[in-house]
Amino acid sequence: MRLAILEDDAAQAEALAGWLKAAGHDCHVYPAGKTLLKDAGRESFDLVILDWEVPDLSGMHVLRWIRRALPPGLPVLFVTYRDAEEDIIEALGQGADDYLSKPVRRGELLARVSALLRRAWPAADNAVLEFPPYRLETASHRLTLKGSEIALTQKEFAVAQFLFRNLGRVVSRGHLLEAVWGRGEELSSRTLDTHVSRVRTKLQLRPENGYRLAPVYSYGYRLEAVAEPAAGKTPPTPST
Description:
The chain has helices spanning 10-22, 33-40, 59-69, 85-93, 106-120, 154-165, 173-181, 189-202; strands at 2-6, 26-30, 47-50, 76-80, 98-101, 128-131, 134-137, 142-145, 148-149, 171-172, 211-216, 220-225.
């Protein structure tokens, strides 16, 4: 999963990111609130970890912006030295999903993060993804449409799996690149667009199959479920 960490203490940031990376997560660390907000406006994350007292914008300010500007459902975990009851109540009341006081224990942090991710993105743990008429078997990289297998490369299957696991959610290009190719690998935009186009074509992601894959200008992509036209009826022709 792709995590954003707001933490201005370098040692704390290194420890948190190290534990989470070892658990299989991809971490982006931000030492200041404005930097995180800048990226959050053009990138997507699966979970955000906030310290309260950081330069320029506090963690509470960032939390309020997330709840106001971003789609609902993004988990936010506070990790901070502020441990007064009124602080915890304020953070949870403003929309934080969980709250940990420093010093943080590795096991507890990983458990809290895992619990938040399971609740927010339940499909992420499934070995078999069922999105009728599609079925994805993650271990064998096998994808079928109405029972017929579709031949996909490993990367194409990874793209399809990521999109279905994030059904209805706008995901950034950077998020998709990291999820499929890994962080640090240099790829052209054309490579990503070509893979997405192939997945759209091979899977026949059209309204008659119940799904549509649409680009979101200057941001990324969204796979969304759409209502299939009733049997025997022709969709109305747009007026001119």
